[in-house]
Specification:
Blueprint lengths: L3 E3 L8 H16 L7 E4 L1 H10 L2 H9 L7 H17 L4 H12 L8 E7 L15 E5 L2 H13 L4 H10 L8 E7 L5 E6 L10 E8 L3 H4 L6 E6 L5 E5 L5 E5 L11 E5 L2 H4 L6 H18 L3 E8 L2 E9 L20 E4 L1 E4 L2 E9 L13 E4 L7 H6 L2 E4 L7 H9 L3 E3 L12 E5 L4 E4 L3 H23 L5 E6 L5 H5 L6 E5 H8 L3 H7 L2 H16 L7 E4 L5 H5 L21 H6 L1 H15 L5 E5 L5 H13 L10 E5 L2 H5 L1 H6 L4 E5 H9 L17 H16 L3 E5 L2 H4 L1 H10 L3 E4 L4 H16 L1
Parallel strand pairs: 16-17, 17-18, 18-19, 22-23, 22-29, 23-24, 24-25, 25-26, 26-27, 27-28, 28-29
Antiparallel strand pairs: 1-2, 2-5, 3-4, 3-5, 6-7, 6-12, 7-8, 8-9, 10-11, 12-13, 14-21, 15-19, 16-20, 20-21
Helix pairs in contact: 3-4, 4-6, 5-6, 16-17, 17-20, 25-27, 27-28
């Protein structure tokens, strides 16, 4: 079993092996995003350590019957477990593998960050924000080994135990991989959300920035600058510049261990009051964030660092809590209650309650249901109290710090960076407006009524959208099997793009390896099971499977892949899509047999042929499908991805070859029409789907397809990110729009509005 794996060899499908953080770092590297190099000590290594050392049994006994709401009991249990883990012996072979990998980083004695990457961390439905420890600027083989073991122990921090209990995760089932990553000695650092972190506005990128190491922003120890960028214009539309009196930097006098490796230093006055980023830097960083969002197909929470004139990303994860229905606020009424103080809105809502000021997390038991928790700074250690509190107000911290994220997960109104928060009077009643960052004396009746009205409008909007039917179908883009059931329960017309690659990655072995072993039946059955699991929840609604579009470098990463794949200079333009089926019919036949068997039960399974360069390729694919028992019919439709310029110029001929529909792959089509590498940050300002040439191509595909009597859809973020594209697609007569699951409701609303406007 591999104990250590490098980022470059990691993808999102490897979460069970390396955890969410490390898997995402590997994804970023694959997308050519700047990421400091590093490796991961696998979750299985942690599990083996816990089992072999006998620690697991003892931990289970300590946690049995523990009441996590009793802070003192929780703290005692946590300390016992952590001490047990750090004092247990790590096996010699694990130590050796960690040391060997560390010696290959940088000059062999690099300063590194040692961070947790739990298998239930940085996931779409739970962030586990800040629950484990991070050790920065660790140096030396022995120190790195000690930091890894300390990271394992931090899986049982009191806040981590509490959070898992609240989320319903079994303590002993959560594995902990550990990331060891070269340090960026950042001049500036912070966090970026590719939506507005508080109100969920999808048209904005939000950036928090501070001088020094980013840990100061993430932990909430300082209040950062805040910048808002409009995605469409790439203009900085708002900024909040905050005085920063101190910064966290490398402690050059430390011994390289994981204690006191960093220190707080004063910031010169002329820097403390100045913007932490120029507008050009803000826009450059926002463009990187949009590339990450495009790669994942959904909003991202990103940690970044800036050194030597270059931005680096040290982490990316899905935004776990966001407004599914962005709502422009109605005008605020006059509020007669006295305004006591203001800060940054961090989690929406308006509520009144009694002030309780906490000096530290050791006082969490003082918070009772309905109290207003007031503290100097927000840290994840306050989670148990935050759960009971009606709202949270802090003197320090930014909208994107870990605790602000947790407040949004808990649905608690939260204000951060309110400088005079500790001057509030203990025991008095205040009203906290987390939507606007205002704190009022007493009960602010007008502001509470405004919030109630807003909630009613949101609920009415959700109810309306759940029942709305649109002529233009709104379909989902799916890859993750775990999402199928929940997505099927939404107001969605089916799956417009089911990515075959995710199933292949879960299987983990190259198809030719199965053929070589004579175990192809095993491969086929695993595909059948996967197809069925996706189709079952959708009933009669179509699930359109895009046939394999793995590129050579991606197939090479599968078990046995290096035996069958030849390195290509540019895999994006290499042996992929239809060309691969023509050259490797024996593999294609396995895929088709799995589809045929799955359709014996699930008639809603259709197929889509990707990356078709010539009409002859399409004709061969269609004939081969017929020979293998898959022939077009009323219940079996065949689509083609329209993503190569030849598809635009020769569309009539492609359709005449025998298609029921086409779906526009806007990402590849944009890239190939404009001749750019969409992952190259230097080309990010050249254009997107709204480019005139791309829009003309999309219009031609839609109108020609409709004239020839086939369905025409589009797959990608463009319609949900850019309402004007959704408007045009409806005008031109597109039959479907497929988007990522988090954009379904928003896109349905855009389509509904466009259709209503068209009727008028």
């Amino acid at each position: 079993m591999t104990k250590v794996i490098w980022f470059k060899d990691t993808r999102k499908e490897d979460i069970p092996l390396v955890g969410g953080k490390a898997a995402n770092l590997g994804e970023l590297i694959s997308a050519d995003i700047p990421v400091p190099d590093g490796f991961t000590v696998t979750a299985q290594t942690y599990m083996d350590f816990m089992r072999i050392s006998g620690v697991s049994n003892t931990v289970t006994r300590i946690l049995e019957g523990l009441d996590v709401d009793k802070t003192v009991e929780l703290d005692i249990a946590s300390e016992r477990i952590k001490r047990l883990i750090v004092q247990s012996n790590m096996s010699k072979d694990v130590r050796t593998d960690i040391m060997r990998a560390y010696s290959q980083l940088g000059d062999g004695n690099a300063l590194v960050a040692v961070r947790s990457s739990a298998t239930a961390e940085d996931l779409p439905d739970a962030s586990f924000a800040g629950q484990q420890e991070t050790f920065l600027n660790v140096q030396g083989k022995d120190n790195v080994v000690r930091a890894v073991q300390a990271c394992w122990a931090s899986l049982f921090n009191a806040r981590a135990i509490f959070y898992r209990e609240q989320q319903g995760f079994d303590h002993m089932s959560v594995g902990l991989a550990v990331v060891v990553q070269e340090m960026v000695q950042s001049e500036r650092a912070g966090v970026m959300f590719t939506i507005n972190s508080v109100d969920g506005n999808p048209t904005q990128v939000e950036i928090a920035a501070a001088l020094g190491l980013g840990e100061s922003v993430v932990s909430g120890a300082i209040t950062p600058d805040n910048y808002i960028v409009d995605k469409k214009s790439l203009k900085v539309t708002a900024k909040t510049i905050v005085n920063q009196p101190k910064q966290l930097l490398l402690n050059t006098g430390n011994d390289g261990g994981h204690e006191e490796t960093n220190k707080w230093t004063s910031v010169p006055g002329y820097l403390a009051d100045a913007p932490k980023l120029t507008d050009d830097q803000v826009v450059e960083l926002a463009q990187i964030g949009l590339r990450v969002e495009q790669h994942y197909g959904g909003p991202q929470d990103i940690e970044w660092a800036y050194q030597g004139g270059k931005f680096f990303l040290t982490q990316a994860r899905p935004v776990t809590v966001q407004s599914q229905d962005y709502l422009d606020d109605a005008e605020l009424p006059d509020e007669p209650a006295q305004l006591l103080l203001q800060g940054m809105p961090a989690s929406p809502g308006v509520v009144s309650g009694e002030v309780k000021i906490l000096e530290g997390p050791h006082q969490c038991d003082l918070i009772e249901d309905g109290d207003i928790l007031v503290a100097d700074m927000t840290t994840p250690d306050y989670v148990s109290a935050m759960k009971r509190a009606a709202a949270i107000v802090t003197a320090k911290g930014g909208r994107t710090c870990h605790a602000a994220i947790v407040a949004r997960e808990l649905g608690k109104p939260c204000i951060v960076g309110a400088e005079n928060a500790l001057a509030l009077q203990e025991g008095t009643t205040i009203t906290v407006d987390g939507s606007h960052g205002d704190v009022f004396d007493g009960v602010a009746a007008s502001r509470i009524a405004w919030n109630e009205s807003r909630l009613e409008r949101l609920e009415a909007k959700k109810t309306a959208m759940a029942q709305v039917e649109t002529k233009t179908k709104v379909m989902a883009i799916l890859a993750d099997l775990d999402e199928a059931t929940s997505v099927a329960q939404e107001n969605v017309d089916g799956v417009g793009l089911l990515r075959m690659e995710f199933l292949l990655a879960r299987i983990g072995k190259h198809p030719k390896a199965f053929l070589a072993e004579g175990t192809q039946e095993q491969f086929i059955q695993q595909l059948v099971d996967g197809f069925s699991a996706f189709c079952e929840p959708f009933g009669n609604r179509p699930v359109v499977l895009r046939l394999t579009d793995f590129k050579t470098n991606e197939l090479e990463n599968l078990q046995g892949g290096s035996d069958y794949e030849v390195e290509e200079e540019n895999p994006m333009l290499g042996l992929r899509g239809a060309a691969r089926y023509v050259q490797q019919p024996e593999v294609f036949a396995l895929e088709l047999e799995a589809i045929r068997r799955a359709r014996e039960v699930h008639q809603n399974l259709w197929v889509m042929v990707p990356f078709v360069r010539t009409v002859a390729e399409l004709e061969w694919v269609l004939n081969f499908m017929t020979e293998n028992g898959l022939e077009r019919s009323e219940s079996f439709k065949v689509w083609m991805m329209a993503e190569v310029p030849s598809n635009v110029f020769l569309l009539e001929k492609f359709i005449s070859a025998g298609l029921d529909g086409v779906s526009i792959g806007s990402n590849d089509l944009t890239q190939l029409i404009l001749g750019l590498d969409r992952d190259n940050a230097k080309l990010g300002n050249i254009g997107d789907e709204r480019n005139e040439a791309v829009m003309q191509a999309i219009e031609h595909i839609v109108k020609t397809g409709r004239e020839m009597g086939i369905t025409v859809g589009i797959c990608g973020q463009a319609p949900s990110d850019h309402p004007e594209i959704a408007q045009k697609l409806v005008e031109w007569g597109a039959t479907s729009i497929s988007v990522s699951p988090d954009r379904i409701a928003h896109t349905r609303e855009l389509v509904h509005q466009a259709e209503q406007q068209l009727q008028k």
